[in-house]
Amino acid sequence: MGRRTDGTDEQGSGGIKGLPGPPSLSARGSLHDRHWAGELRSAVRCAGALLALLLLVDAAAGTLTPARAALWSGLALLLFLVLFPPRVTAGEGWLTVRGPWRSHRVRTDRLVSVRTTGSVGQSLVLRDAWGGRVQLDPRILIANPSLWLRLDTDARVAQTNGSMHEGRAALDHLSARVDRETALAVFKVSGMED
Q: In this structure, are residues 123 and 86 in contact, taking their beta carbons and an 8 Å threshold?
């Protein structure tokens, strides 16, 4: 049986409830963040709710004008842009992070360095031999083990061919986090969780 891009096979089974399903594959074999669409819907709902609330309060006070409606719409748009989730896509040898305005791509099989920045809101910064740079939240990789596996496999290729000089420790730390989260999901589904 064939696989569809939505993570279900032709009979509609999506795997074991609570565990990650099969990787999201497009026609070209790329992997995608499977939580991105839900996060985008949440950003739209938050911005829409703010706009509705502001318009409702302004209308109830009798002060709603076209200029104020445009101001509230701009504020809601600003909130949407702040909440807009980056879309992470990966394939053999590459990883792309797309924001609302720009897209950044790095060759993962030619990584030069991998670093973590920040202590509270950690980011993973990947740099390749051609100057490409992407920055992403490591929680995206933790929530999408297939994306993590693709990155880790390519990083090992970069390490083997000698291009990666810095970052194996950061990747090993992230690997331990992915393994821990996957094991917790298995325990939760099997009923072995405390």
A: no
